Amino acid sequence: MTHLPLTSLIVMAAAALGASSAAQAAQVEVLHYWTSGGEARSIAELKKTLAARGVNWKDFAVAGGAGENAATALKARVMSGGAPTAAQVKGPAIQEWGQEGVLANIDAVARSEKWDALLPPAVASIMKYKGSYVAAPVNVHRVNWLWVNPAVLKKAGATAPATLDEFFAAADKIKAAGMIAVAHGGQPWQDATLFESVALGVGGAGFYKQALVQLDPAALTGPVMIKTFDTLARIKTYIDRDSAGRDWNLATAMIINGKAGMQFMGDWAKGEFTAAGKQAGADFLCLPAPGTAAAYTFNIDSMLMFQKPGADDQKSQQVLASAIMSPQFQEVFSLNKGSIPVRAGVPKTRFDSCAQRSMADMDASSKAGSFVPSLAHNMAVGSAAQGAIMDVIARFMNSTMSSKDAVAALAKAARTK
Ligand code: GAL
For the domain bounded by 6-140+301-353, which CATH number is listed? Predict the structure, then answer.
């Protein structure tokens, strides 16, 4: 074997590297927590959309509803210097990541595709850090829903509830007929999802905003919040004993298979009904959570982009952002996910009655000032206060804590910075 001088070896190695990176297709690594049946079908659509645009998908899925585990994994990765291309991050957490100085600016694609004109201004501002787009919005989920199995109602001789009183009347009948009235999973984010819909039903949108968005101490400790916890304590008595730790999609499965009658959950639950081949209005009902028909708790999924040094990665990031905002993707994703498109210009015709209602109620509640951010789904307050508030709700759900003690703990938690 002839010996080559070191410089030629370096040149050869560099050429080989160049060749292999040119042969490597563009790729995005995306951190998400969409792992249930309906969610997996939805994310598969994003992979397909990207493949059609020549970009490969590297999956960074971290199971766990509402993304608590995913948020921890993301922190670990960014701290170790290896941020993914994008991650499913929402609401005020986008600003928290912006302050860390680790985000990519996607203004170029947003400007050329006129995102400012396609998005409601309130949504656009969530996607921006210091005036620049750093995230692409995927959809709008409504949280204040009650999912109902009409066959269970019928068997129990109960009717679909619109108010909290009607809800308890239906729950009593379902229980008396030997079925589980309320399907629930005892995980802090599910407890908080239930809590915020009850708070909205008991106090209305004005109270909700004062207490759970502005964190006003008087609203957090006043009689309406006491009544919210009293109502929550009553609902607890309709949940089965095996609920501790149960995943949300397993609770939805109890509605699907007729074991239980009603579930408080956002409309990602509809993704499970759809995946199971069930029809809205016939096999299941989507009702506004009792007493909340005039309001809308929103939860907007978004993909947050992280700074990447390579030009290839930056290009793939722009492709990802553009794919997410395309009308075709917004339509097919929400059809599977149970949500509605977030941008203008997506045809409504293929959406079912639940989605149509969500679209109409989003418009009406925006005009009425009752379109409010979800606390449980990271849209309302910073992550420290949210975590502390969710701890209090979970403690209340899992103990005999009084409503009076709960509101005091809640007000203290709300001060967490
Ligand atoms: C929400 C998220 C939804 C859905 C749900 C359950 O916070 O916005 O897209 O995934 O959690 O994991």
Answer: 3.40.190.10
